[in-house]
Amino acid sequence: VTGVHTCALPISVFSVSPTSYDYGSEAVGGTPLATQDFTVTNAGTTDLSFDSESITFTGGGTAQYAITADSCSGNNIAPAGTCVVSVAFDPTATGSQDAFLVFSNNALDSPQNISLTGTGTTLSPPSNTGVPTASGTTTAGNQLSASNGTWTGTPVTFSYQWQDCTSLGSGCTNIGSATSPDYTLSASDVGLYVRVVVTATNS
Hints:
By secondary structure, this protein is mainly beta. The protein has strands at about 15, 20-25, 35-40, 50, 55-60, 65-70, 75, 80-90, 95-105, 110-120, 125-130, 135, 145, 150, 155-165, 170-175, 180-185, 195-200. About 0% of the residues lie in helices and about 50% in strands.
């Protein structure tokens, strides 16, 4: 009679979703940055362990990617547990930018390489599609407020300059430090046209 006894050793099993990612096109210097979460799951029977420098990049486009959040590094992930690494594509050059997100841990198949692809494009300046407006009562002592209007090109900041003009749209001079969205009319504005110049910036 022969007896056979088998036993299963506890192992950690690395699983990640997605297993690769294409960020598409992103303008050089553009904001907001394109970001993707990579969710790691321990599909094994013992802790999946990461040291403090477990998540890195490799490949020609390494400098174009950045980790913006990381709950994996320095942690032990229990069986069926998860952690998340968020990666932003922030191109500094145009063209195809390929790299690998590298996970190092105690799983048998470590390190695991996750393919990242993205294309850097030229940032286009904002273009106005709806003229900014000013609203309020046009008498001295009252406040005027500027709207930004509408723009293409994903503007991220706006600046303002209020002006006095001798005629409608001409003979205009800047009004001192009147560079906020709101402006309170003064006696020196009486008899003049007041306008606001709105400038949109995306870099």
